[in-house]
């Protein structure tokens, strides 16, 4: 299937080789969840060509979600953070190259160049370059004991600082900021969270769910401050000791953790004139404007079947895994459009939030369960159709909502609001 957009420069003439030619080479740049899933799925599908997985970190592929929770708390050992045991790569003839950063792609010769002049030729290239932390642009952001939390080395350094009684200021009340804050509270730290928005997770969840999390985190001792910004970080002898807000308030801090979002790593794609727009633009097959190059995971910008025609870039394990499988299927000669239901999760102390679908500003909300407690779901409807479901400590609702959205089974707001209505009855009817 052809792409519906054009590159900014001429495409190479050579098309993707037929998969029966076993000597073709697939190179994957980015050894995270998405990149690993590509090589794993290709080998599961009996792909016999050469597979090269290249990462710029000195580690084998690992999971990021535990870094802000179980790993920080010492509940998840390092070996469980790793996505595959070391022998997996040699057993499946996967060339894993660690600690190399790609700097350019020559699309005409199909060659990737790296910082140390190392080069790789490819028949198909997969860009799984992910995203990086959005930096805080204020004076003092380079002081010691100021942390971001995305990679394993950052998590290791931060873990060593989690000492009971320390004062920590978290800048950003999104998923990562609140997950870390909940872990720090459990460690016995004094935690203050700041955000420019008027509520926690404002870009991702409903006001109802935000209110529940604000209330429950406050009960655990977390201090939440909204509608404010950081003016600067203050230090003594090179180490942070306070955060100053734009209102002039000083908040003492032994350490500061910044979680204000991410930026997609599009530089490699932009450098070879692929189309970029808050991510690497791909079609429904995860192809870029060059049919020999795909992009997946946090860096890929696509129109989801659940995004109301808008291009989105989804940062989740589900998205990374499903897009990787989509690309692998196409390389194996079994191309199918990407139509996976988006779903996400965030565990913040005792609060397990699971989300299905994509939120819209034009949604009507229905609450199922008791929002004064810690177990309820918010069903959001766009133009009368189910669009998005947030489930707090109600795993059953989450599983059912994924099936409802994936099967396009109609659920009315009245049915969702009725506590006596069995959601699973809709699935039973559809199966008849």
What would you note in describing this structure?
This protein is α/β, with parallel strands linked by helices and 432 residues long. 24% of the residues lie in helices and 28% in strands. The protein has helices at 33-44, 70-73, 78-81, 87-91, 152-159, 175-186, 207-219, 267-271, 317-331, 395-407, 413-417, 424-431, and strands at 25-29, 50-54, 94-97, 102-106, 111-114, 119-121, 124-127, 131-133, 146-148, 167-171, 190-194, 223-225, 230-236, 239-245, 250-252, 255-258, 262-264, 280-281, 293-295, 300-303, 311-312, 343-348, 351-357, 363-370, 375-382, 385-392. The strands form 7 sheets. It has a 5-stranded parallel sheet with strand order 3-2-1-7-19. Helix 1 packs parallel to helix 9. The longest helix is centred in the last third of the chain and has 15 residues, at 317-331. Residues 9-21 have low confidence and may be disordered.
Essential attributes:
alpha/beta, 24% helix, 432 residues, five-stranded parallel beta sheet
Termini separation (Å)?
34 Å
Read across the widest sheet, the strand sequence of neighbours is 3-2-1-7-19
Morphology call: globular
Number of strands: 26
Work out the helix count.
Answer: 12
Largest sheet, strands/sense/barrel: 5 strands, parallel
Compute the gyration radius: what is it?
23 Å
Unreliable stretches covering 5 or more consecutive residues: 9-21
Average pLDDT, rounded to a whole number, is 93
Structural class: alpha/beta
Helix content: 10-25%
Query: Strand fraction band?
Result: 25-35%
């Amino acid at each position: 299937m052809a792409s519906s957009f054009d590159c900014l420069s001429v495409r190479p003439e050579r098309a993707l080789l037929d998969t029966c030619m076993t000597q073709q080479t697939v190179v994957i740049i980015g050894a995270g969840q998405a990149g690993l899933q590509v090589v794993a799925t290709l080998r599961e599908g009996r792909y016999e060509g050469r597979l090269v997985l290249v990462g710029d970190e000195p580690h084998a592929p690992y999971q990021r979600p535990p870094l802000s929770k179980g790993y920080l708390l010492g509940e998840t050992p390092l070996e469980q953070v790793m996505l595959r045991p070391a022998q997996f790569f040699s057993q499946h003839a996967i060339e894993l190259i660690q600690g190399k950063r790609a700097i350019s792609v020559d699309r005409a010769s199909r060659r990737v160049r790296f910082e140390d002049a190392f080069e790789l030729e490819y028949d198909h290239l997969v860009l799984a370059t992910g995203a990086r932390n959005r930096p805080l642009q204020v004076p003092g952001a380079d002081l010691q004991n100021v942390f971001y939390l995305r990679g394993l080395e950052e998590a290791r350094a931060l873990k060593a600082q989690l000492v009971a009684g320390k004062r920590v200021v978290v800048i950003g009340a999104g998923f990562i900021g609140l997950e870390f804050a909940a872990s720090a509270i459990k460690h016995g730290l004094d935690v203050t969270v700041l955000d420019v928005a008027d509520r926690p997770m404002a870009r991702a969840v409903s006001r109802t769910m935000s209110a529940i999390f604000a209330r429950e985190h406050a009960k655990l001792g977390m201090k939440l401050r909204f509608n404010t910004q950081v003016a600067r970080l203050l230090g003594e002898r090179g180490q942070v000791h306070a955060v100053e807000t734009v209102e002039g308030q000083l908040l003492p801090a032994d350490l500061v953790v910044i979680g204000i979002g991410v930026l997609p790593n599009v530089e490699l794609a932009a450098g070879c004139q692929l189309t970029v727009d808050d991510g690497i633009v791909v079609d429904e097959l995860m192809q870029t404007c060059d049919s020999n190059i795909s992009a997946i995971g946090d860096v890929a910008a696509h129109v989801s079947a659940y995004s109301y025609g808008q291009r989105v870039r989804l940062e989740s394990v589900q998205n990374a895994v499903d897009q990787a499988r989509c690309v692998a299927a196409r390389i194996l000669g079994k191309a199918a459009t990407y139509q996976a239901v988006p779903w996400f999760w965030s565990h913040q102390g005792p609060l397990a939030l699971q989300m299905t679908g994509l939120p819209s500003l034009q949604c009507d909300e229905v609450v199922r369960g008791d929002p004064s407690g810690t177990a309820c779901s918010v069903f959001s409807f766009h133009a009368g159709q189910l669009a998005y479901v947030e489930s707090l400590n109600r795993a059953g609702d989450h599983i059912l909502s994924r099936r409802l959205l994936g099967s396009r089974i109609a659920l009315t707001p009245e049915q969702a609001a009725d506590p006596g209505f069995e959601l699973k009855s809709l699935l039973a009817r559809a199966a008849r």
